């Protein structure tokens, strides 16, 4: 089993590392970080770099595709080298997944037409442009497509898919190993729960806050 | 404000990236990944590398120190170049923090003597050897020392400290931006909550499961 996690300039690190630390602990699986070119790939702030060990062209047939989100997604929505790879990889994949705005890349590749899917709450409606049906759930499974909401939701997605593939015991073992017993100091993780002025602040300054 | 996140061979990626995506969004702060040598640093599985952009010696006076855990911690418990840097950085820091077994490195440097602290649940008792008082809390603050439990707890630690430094509104804004509204598919994130046979399986195979 091969898991390919796609990197691109200005991705969001936790989008990639959340599924990595959960789904990536699938027994007998090889996880590879892939990008158009091998080498360090910088996130949206520029002060973090994850290494792409393989080029997209070196990984044509992953069993599981994971596409993280991040501000860099916007400039790739018509970038055929990536979209072509996503289409080809998806043609042979068992599972095609995304976190945050990664779903917009899957949608732009034409893979989510007629599918229920999710994205970061600020970009959810954009899925409609590509024929997908946005939902407010944190993790959405429609056939072999598993999309997750913003940034940290990739942890929940990774555990969910891990349980589906490897069984509940293994998923719980990974949850225990990563001590994923969340105790956020606030209850502000969704626009329904956060104080209204905080939601408004983020809506009006998303371009600054999220890059 | 400068935040230094320490990398070393066989660290655990989410331990570093959790605080990075939360605490690292502190306004007007610079976050730097540091290691003994600059360049890619591999995690415990070897299939993920984060770049250390600066050497420890280039970052002598960080305001906040973050030490992630991971299996590589074990071989560093008497490694003076790192322990010396931790002592010197701590002497000038405003906050000295850790995730998972990172607290054992702080303890080995002599920084947690007489302090309440935490670690991954499997290694919690080891803190006593260094004069620290282990607690079962997820995030423990004692003076300027903030230690977090296993792997994913660094997200909660990062948000907690962010709120303390930048205020509740900003921390909630970051929680909303990262859509940290956890919905784990299982409730197995601590030894008290996970099924007994899963706890036992992890205890007996920790060396395999966690590397």
UniProtKB/TrEMBL annotation, chains A, B:
Domain spans labelled DJ-1/PfpI: 2-162
Domain of life: Bacteria
Pfam families for this protein: DJ-1_PfpI (PF01965)
SUPFAM superfamilies to which the protein is assigned, alphabetical: Class I glutamine amidotransferase-like (SSF52317)
Protein name (record): DJ-1/PfpI family protein
């Amino acid at each position: 089993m091969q898991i390919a996690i796609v990197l691109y300039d200005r991705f969001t690190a936790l989008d990639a590392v959340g599924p990595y630390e959960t789904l990536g602990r699938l027994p007998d699986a090889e996880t590879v970080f892939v990008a158009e070119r091998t080498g360090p790939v910088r996130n949206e702030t520029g002060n973090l770099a994850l290494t792409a060990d393989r080029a997209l062209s070196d990984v044509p047939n992953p069993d599981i595709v994971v596409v993280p989100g991040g501000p860099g997604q916007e400039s790739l929505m018509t970038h055929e080298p990536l979209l072509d790879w996503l289409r080809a990889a998806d043609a042979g994949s068992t599972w095609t997944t995304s976190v945050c705005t990664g779903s917009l890349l899957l949608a732009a590749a034409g893979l989510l037409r007629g599918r229920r899917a999710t994205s970061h709450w600020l970009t959810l409606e954009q899925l409609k442009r590509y024929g997908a049906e946005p939902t407010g759930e944190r993790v959405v499974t429609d056939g072999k497509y598993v999309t997750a909401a913003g940034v940290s939701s990739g942890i929940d997605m990774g555990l969910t898919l891990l349980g589906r593939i490897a069984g509940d015991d293994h998923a719980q073992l990974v949850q225990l190993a990563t001590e994923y017993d969340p105790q956020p100091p606030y209850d502000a993780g969704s626009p329904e729960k956060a104080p209204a002025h905080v939601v408004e602040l983020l809506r009006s300054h998303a371009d600054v806050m999220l890059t």
